[in-house]
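Re: weekly structure request thread

Next one in the queue (266 aa):
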Amino acid sequence: MIRFLWLIVPFILLADKPNLLLLKVYKDQNITGWVMSEKLDGIRAYWNGKKLLTRNGKDIYLPSWFTKDFPPFELDGELWTKRKNFEYISSVVLGSAYPENWERFTYNIFEVPNAKGGLFERLSKVKPYESKILKIIPQIKVKNKDHLQKFLKEIEAKGGEGVVVRDPNSLYISKRTSKALKVKSFYDTECKVIRHIKGHGKFKGMLGSLECRLENGTLFKIGSGFTNQERKNPPPIGSIITFKYKEFTKYGKPRFPVFLRIRKSK
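Done, posted below.
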């Protein structure tokens, strides 16, 4: 029994944080000649040639059969099962890793860090290793901005998170770049819970809204997106939560913020 203990220990060990490509936000930029793909709502995972890490450099516990045929070079992608399944994905990847749970997962590749050439040249290195587990995310050539918006609506109608558009001729960039953009009807980010505000009317005796603080210090309130159970047991003061929003106002506050979830450790 001792040799299987690692399967039930919900810890993720600290490793070196990788320098990875990060997305900026699409704001009607010129995307002529770019490509687009679905932005999968899973857990981002970096393969360093030997093991899988979170984007913050922590080891991901998973059975050895999952990665046994992975290539000996770096990969960047998303651990994913299906749309609208983030809570389950998070509970497995960042929590207890039972082998039967991992049978539902695929590792979906969108980048080969530090490889030479354009995007398609980098991704071509992965083709010999494609399998039922290891997949390359399809890239579609963008005809025009209307084509992008139509694709975005199709993805969101299916329950998808959004779209990524990229300049396929750009070399690999290990930081946030204007050559790779996320496109969503709503965006998401994180904030710290500062205060519970009591509810009124139908929410009397429960949470009405949260006062939260962004990383830059901006204070704002979130009053929607909560279930009745979450209003009875709201996110603790000091916790970090994820919320979605339409855009930022000229005062730097999120417009139409909606609570999504309490952040789990990564």
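Residues 187-262 form a domain with the OB fold (Dihydrolipoamide Acetyltransferase, E2P) fold (CATH 2.40.50.140). Residues 1-15 have pLDDT under 50 and may be disordered.
Next request, please.
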